[in-house]
Amino acid sequence: MRVEKVLxxxxxxxxxxxxxTKKAINEIESGQVLEVHTTDKGAKSDLTAxxxxxxxxxxxxREENDVLIFLIKKG
Length: 75
What we know:
Helix 1 (16-25) links the parallel strand 1 (5-9) and strand 2. This protein has helices spanning 16-25, 43-54, and strands at residues 5-9, 33-38, 57-64, 67-73. It has two helices and four strands; from the N terminus they run βαβαββ. With 75 residues, the chain is an alpha+beta fold.
């Protein structure tokens, strides 16, 4: 899978990971993939709900060394 853009939102508290994700997803084309890295534990539910409500697709979620990594396909 090709990731078009990587967003480093580590160290940011809610709601900044969502704010930064929204800005970054607007910078890529429909069908492209954004990879988001965050340390905000609330981001799992926040980004999942945000992707669903905005028509984007959460392709993958994993945790590596206390960093949450999301792959979001722009709708």
